[in-house]
Amino acid sequence: MKNWEAMEAFVEVVRQGSFSAAAVKLSVSASHISRLITQLEAELETTLLFRTTRRIRLSDAGELYYQHCRGLPEALSSAEEVISTLNQAPIGSFKMTCATTFGERYIAPLMNDFLLNHPKIELDFHLTNRSVDLIEEGYDLAIRMGAMKDSSHLSRRLCDREEYLCASREYIDQHGMPHTLAELSKHSCLIGSKTHWLFQQDGQRKEVKVNSNWRSNSGPALLDAVRKGLGIAQLPDYYVADDLASGKLIPLLTQYQYPYSGVWLVYPKVRQPSPKLQSICDYLIQRFKQDPPFAK
């Protein structure tokens, strides 16, 4: 295919940030990458990259070209995989990501079980609370929480998820409990990676911006702070279900509790789900249905 190798090299240079890193990724020499980019620019009669000794920078034409072709290498790989693995067991590399605690508790053990039956899968599993760019960073699958807002991706629902506003009995004894959403501003609110809390008021979804002098991107750290009476927090069921059942934590403003949000399997729209991706998604959904890990 005309310019295909050069286009793939260009995309990888932009992703990796250098010719040498792209060369390592594609298992070729840096000089070969440089020649491909030069030939591509000559073919297109425009400059795509500005090169210095320290960095590369996209030209306006390069930015436009990259936005149009950045998903094509994965699309071709996926198309080839669909054909070559129609009658085969899942095989090859698979890169996925999930929020840290949810991934450690629930997804990693299931994926490890999956690999016992599919040893030809090469799993690259990243646990992070950062919202990654699936296409830019080369992920096949992301597991995400809450409302789906990005229509550029496809998704399947893995399970329901509820969030609870709660505090320790010690905090309530000392500071009382809020009775309306407006009263939250009078309390010590502890927040995680989100600056807004989700509620339902008069049948409508309502997000409340929270001001706080305590913040962490760690769910376990947030839970510890709530348990120790530092304030009020909104945490998902898989963190607080046991503490609520035992009375260690007290649910608050239950009349405003949002019914549920979801946990989603998310993958790029640019690719037809491969047998490998399809198999993993089907497996995770089936396991969550069979044995819900945080069912009431």
UniProtKB/TrEMBL annotation:
It comes from the Bacteria. PROSITE patterns: HTH_LYSR. GO terms for molecular function: DNA-binding transcription factor activity; sequence-specific DNA binding. Pfam families: HTH_1 (PF00126), LysR_substrate (PF03466). Transmembrane segments: none annotated. The keyword Transcription regulation applies. Keywords: DNA-binding, Transcription, Transcription regulation. Residues 1-59 form the HTH lysR-type domain. GO terms for biological process: DNA-templated transcription. SUPFAM superfamilies: Periplasmic binding protein-like II, Winged helix' DNA-binding domain. Signal peptide: none annotated. InterPro entries: LysR-type_TF_proteobact-type (IPR058163), LysR_HTH_N (IPR000847), LysR_subst-bd (IPR005119), WH-like_DNA-bd_sf (IPR036388), WH_DNA-bd_sf (IPR036390). Belongs to the LysR transcriptional regulatory family. This is LysR family transcriptional regulator. The lineage of its organism: Bacteria, Pseudomonadati, Pseudomonadota, Gammaproteobacteria, Oceanospirillales.
